[in-house]
Amino acid sequence: TPLVRQLESLLEEHHAATVSYIRQSGPVADIERAIEEISGQDEAVDALVSLGGGSPIDATKVISLRIKERKGNLLTHLTIPTTLSTAECTAGGGYINAEGSKVGLRAPEMGVSAIFYDAKYASHTPKDLWLSTGMRAMDHAVECMYHPCSSEVPWKALAVWAVGELFECLPKARDSHPHDPDIMTRLMLAAYASSGLKGENLKGGMGLSHSLGHAIGSPYGIPHGITSCMTLGKVVQLKAHESLENAKQIRRLLPAAGGNPAGDALQDALEVGRRIGNLIESLGLDVGTLSSRGVSKDETPIITQKALGGVNEGVLYNEVEKLVQTLF
């Protein structure tokens, strides 16, 4: 795309260098190369601008943190997201280590200083990537409802709104992207609402759909937007069965998903999961299965244990293992 060159031109004398080799999920070799390159610049470099999706944004956050640790100065991080994955919304990020596993970091210094949502920039994003990362934003909004530390205000209130916007606008984007800037802007704001104001009291990971996404994503080269398409609807149904409180929280999303509550918390929550699955199918994405993406069924226990933080037995393990088996 012409975006990098446009940005370089806009920056004029403020542009010191461009790092354009960060690959998907930010391999540590790419991160270390960029740190050396930026550290070698003169002291006038005081800001980083990330452009793109989750990988360049997360990588920039990690680079900024490492440079602060090395040189003591905090670099201002400005970001222009071009997907809906919401990496810009958290004071944390990650990279892929030499063994191929995702390493997560979290620190106040990793928060971005300013986010610029621009439909003109997003118009260069391929439709499938735009839609699949929209489901990643859906993943954030839905999993907040049953997270034990999520706040009622603003996060859950915004999540319910975001789910409604995503259900309405993603099908419209399927038919109009990249020609409708209003729909693109609504989706970017919905993505921000899904994750941008969750606060600092969040303990642990986002939720099971996210942890499964990490387990099947980077190790097998599957983009996180696609992993959310694979897991979210099924995880919602598992969580609904897990407890009545989960079901009550999930059912709150049913009107936003276009449904009418029937009065039974479990059935309403299960309907949310079904509607998520139907939405994904309607978007026409090439989600596929783990088998079609080259993952062996023998990996099932490895994936399950990774998703559960090393747990390898018990009722929850058995339920999650069954879910993973349906992904093949």
Task: Please characterize this protein's 3D structure.
- The chain is mainly α and 328 residues long.
- Helix content is 53%, strand content 7%.
- It contains 13 helices and 5 strands.
- It has helices at residues 3-11, 28-39, 54-71, 119-122, 127-145, 152-176, 181-195, 208-216, 224-242, 244-251, 265-282, 300-307, 315-325, and strands at residues 47-52, 76-81, 92-96, 102-106, 114-115.
- A 3-stranded parallel beta sheet has the order 1-2-5, covered by helices on one side.
- Helix 5 runs antiparallel to helix 6 (152-176), helix 8 (208-216) packs across helix 12 and helix 12 crosses helix 13 (315-325).
- The relative contact order is 0.10.
